[in-house]
Amino acid sequence: MNPPITLDIVLPCFNPRSGWEQILKDALANLKTRLPENALNAVILVNDGSTTGVSDAAIETLIAAHSEVKLIEYPKNRGKGYAVRAGVKSSEGELQIYTDIDIPYVEESIVRFYGLLADGKIDVVVASRGNSYYNSLS
């Protein structure tokens, strides 16, 4: 049996809300059970100059639970596009998926996107948040 296509998930973050690390920890645990074994190569967390919300303790907790977590950080906020590019540039996986740190798309979507990309029939998947997401913010 061939090894799975490897996936890196790029997560740009800037001043994430409280509890983000537990949300991410739980989401990664769920993803690992749903993706093919050894498919998840790296989770690249790009701290885009956060001044609050990202602590050494939070990062250590994540890495202790998920050794795939890699951290890129820089002191000045440079914008989401820069953070995504920095994450993709450091990626070594065959596929990359990026999403926000709060994982607005349920893990099921990431698994589905992985399957679509890994079968080689498409090159890009684009998703957008639906009205239910925006309605939940008010």
Description:
- Helix 2 (56-65) links the parallel strand 2 and strand 3 (69-74).
- The protein has a single domain, classed as Spore Coat Polysaccharide Biosynthesis Protein SpsA, Chain A.
- It has helices at residues 20-34, 56-65, 80-90, 107-118, 131-137, and strands spanning 7-13, 40-48, 69-74, 95-98.
- The longest helix is centred in the first third of the chain and has 15 residues, at 20-34.
- The chain is an alpha/beta fold.
- Helix 1 runs parallel beside helix 2 and helix 1 packs across helix 4 (107-118).
Low-confidence region ranges:
none
Reported for the largest beta sheet, the result is:
4 strands, parallel
How many individual helices? 5
Radius of gyration: 15 Å
Oligomer: single chain
Say which CATH homologous superfamily is assigned: Spore Coat Polysaccharide Biosynthesis Protein SpsA, Chain A
SSE string, helices as H and strands as E? EHEHEHEHH
Distance between the termini: 49 Å
CATH class: Alpha Beta
CATH architecture: Alpha-Beta Complex
- Global structural class: alpha/beta
Silhouette: globular
Counted up, domains total 1
What number is the mean pLDDT?
Answer: 90
- Beta-strand residue percentage: 15-25%
Number of DSSP strands? 4
